[in-house]
Amino acid sequence: YWLVYFLLLCLIAAGIVYYYNTRHDLQKMLVVGCKKNEFIPYYQPIMSLDDKLQGVEVLVRWKLSDGSLLLPAYFIEVAEQMEVINEITITLVKKVQADFRRYSSNYNRKVFCAFNLTAQQIENKSFINLLILTLKKEENFVPSFEITERQHFNNLALAKANIRRLQEQGYQVKLDDAGTGYGGFSYFMDFNLDGVKIDKMFIDVIGVDDVKVEVLNSIIMMAKRLGIDIVAEGVETQQQVDFLRKHNIDYIQGYYYSKPVPFKDLNFDN
Ligand code: C2E
Ligand code: CA
Ligand code: CA
Ligand code: CA
């Protein structure tokens, strides 16, 4: 038995070493990728209930030197714990504004453009300063922000003040991944957010799990009582769209309408 225990311990140790090595490699690759300017924006349409494109969400993609695109699932968690996430966000803001300028003949009305921010970024005063400085006011380009509920806030007062500063610039701030985090809805009361994005997890249960739909119903009810916008993400089926229409939520986003695409492939006609 000693031998079995010993071998098991060796295996676990090897696993831990392997994990930290790959993590360390990824950290180094992220820094290099940042220097080489390899992070690019993709855009997913956000529709109103009358099937009109009202906004887009900016979703980062890592364009490797061989031309392949890496999804956030492979790197964003590690990036979010490093300084590079700030560089990535600022790079995206610049590239997004360049896209809106370059293709401005593709559209002739205001569309909002939502960037993802981490809890740490919202608590970082100098980052928010840089963000506000980088964003240029332009016609038909309306920046907004999504802050995820998945991460802890360490300094609620500072987060609140920075959210306020973004709102004073005329930028909306919404709670992302609503229902999945630690905070529940306590944030709403305190942060005075403009809206809530219901996570795909709660959209998936429509027509599938009646008990979990009750949770979805309560999120919708709460947001309505607060009078803030409701966005549903990860909407894939007609049944889900019908349900969300019935509940008169504000915006729908998901593969039902479109996957994330490069700016030139966005369709502003409807
Ligand atoms: P998220 O903010 O919850 O974004 C929604 C994710 O769901 C996106 O995945 C989107 O492509 C995907 N999605 C949208 N509609 C559907 C659908 O109908 N079906 C399915 N199966 N998926 C759908 P993506 O682009 O892979 O991004 C994953 C996560 O990475 C995002 O989740 C967000 O947390 C993070 N992320 C993306 N861009 C950024 C960024 O610039 N900064 C930070 N900090 N995080 C980012
Ligand atoms: Ca988001
Ligand atoms: Ca989500
Ligand atoms: Ca509304």
Automatic annotation (TrEMBL):
Span of domain EAL: 23-270
Bilayer-spanning residue ranges: 1-20
Name used for this protein in its record: EAL domain-containing protein
Keywords, comma-separated and alphabetical: Membrane, Transmembrane, Transmembrane helix
